[in-house]
């Protein structure tokens, strides 16, 4: 039996209403959402080994599973800068914003053969790379796992960035803000010289 798809929204996509996977268009803004203060990374949490149990996502929405303060780049960010960000194996997408609005999601293949000084936003796209906050989290998890997609930017009906949905390597759950903070803390610990000698 085919995996369920996120429910379709009532309005048709437009310039500021890109088509979400499964046709879902976010009907409302998540209270307390927004870009917030960028975190140190928009990457996944620690790599998992073995077959971890599937985290229960039934009855939850994308808003419940997203990272709420992903790292973002401005509209003038270049291809060279995006390539530098994507050298981190844990980063799968560069989110380009203008004010509160998401204007482009850039992934590694977008940058192939592009001039280094070209604005990165011109190489990316939103179609197929964004989702609404009210989509069913379990349906989206299955769809992402089946298609090999690890990241979906979460936007409201006006195109404002609310967060980032990060599927873990196992495909069995999503990274949390706590995972991101722990990884950032771990990196700081491993790069800080030991002064206790």
Q: Overview of this structure, please?
A:
It is a single chain. The chain is of the alpha+beta class. The chain has helices at about 60-65, 80-85, 135-145, 175-190, and strands at about 95-100, 100-105, 130, 150-155, 160-165. A three-stranded mixed beta sheet has the order 3-4-5. Strands 1-2 form a two-stranded antiparallel ribbon. The termini are far apart.
List its salient traits.
197 residues, alpha+beta, two-stranded antiparallel sheet, 4 helices, 19% helix, 12% strand
Write the layout of secondary structure elements.
Layout: H1 62-65, H2 79-85, E1 94-98, E2 101-106, E3 130-131, H3 137-147, E4 151-155, E5 161-166, H4 177-191
Parallel strand pairs: 3-4
Antiparallel strand pairs: 1-2, 4-5
In short:
The protein is of the alpha+beta class. It contains four helices and five strands, in the order H-H-E-E-E-H-E-E-H. The termini are far apart.
Strand order of the largest sheet: 3-4-5
State the low-pLDDT regions, or none: 4-54
Oligomerization: single chain
H/E element sequence: HHEEEHEEH
Distance between the termini: 61 Å
Count of runs of 4 or more consecutive helical residues? 4
**Structural class of the helix and strand makeup?**
alpha+beta
Residue share in β-strands: 5-15%
What is the rounded Rg? 17 Å
What's the story with the biggest beta sheet? 3 strands, mixed
- Number of DSSP E strands: 5
Shape, per Cα inertia axes: globular
Helix content: 10-25%
Averaged pLDDT: 76
